[in-house]
Specification:
about 170 residues, alpha+beta, 3-stranded mixed sheet, 4 helices, 11 strands
Length: about 170
């Protein structure tokens, strides 16, 4: 993971999935605007700029997996030189689904985040001409006792941004 941290200084975004290095392309403008709006919403409603981070790294497993979600809310301040956040320090992960990332954002990442113990996961679906919908999940266990996200709630992004953020910490 240290080698990947050094590569991050190039300005590219990388994810490490089961030892395979993935290059993550830049977000389109709508995607970036959605993340900016959520960041401003959290910060103007009491979350510190040290807690609300766009495109941070999360160390999913010790050596073989690290993801770069669109937005996270940290439970506590981290060292500014840290590249990979410990999942125990992450209260919320937000992923914005983009063309080409549908399966990963809907299936792979939620499972990884749940197994890492991240308590809340939000997935934002953007329709072609429809309003964006925020799907909110809380960590629970499936019938076998495995960690998974439950308690699905869907809300339009505009309605979410017109309300106060939930207490995550």
């Amino acid at each position: 993971m240290a080698e990947l941290a050094a590569a991050d200084e190039s300005g590219h975004r990388y994810e490490l999935v089961d030892g395979t290095l993935l290059v993550v392309p830049p977000a389109d403008f709508d995607h970036a605007e959605t993340i900016t709006r959520l960041t401003v919403w959290f910060v103007t409603n009491g979350y510190g700029t040290h807690q609300v981070l766009a495109t941070p790294g999360i160390q999913i497993t010790e050596r073989t997996s690290g993801r770069v979600p669109d937005l996270i809310i940290l439970r506590r301040r981290r060292d500014g030189r840290t590249v990979w956040a410990d999942p125990a320090d992450v209260a919320l992960v937000v992923e914005v689904v983009s063309p080409g990332s549908e399966r990963v954002d809907r299936e792979a990442k939620p499972g990884e985040y749940a197994r890492a113990g991240i308590t809340q996961f939000w997935r934002i679906e953007r329709g072609d001409n429809a309003e964006a919908t925020v799907h909110q999940f809380r960590l629970g266990n499936d019938l076998r006792g495995e960690p998974t996200y439950l308690g699905h709630r869907a809300v339009l992004l505009e309605d979410l941004l017109a309300s106060k953020p939930p207490e995550l910490l």
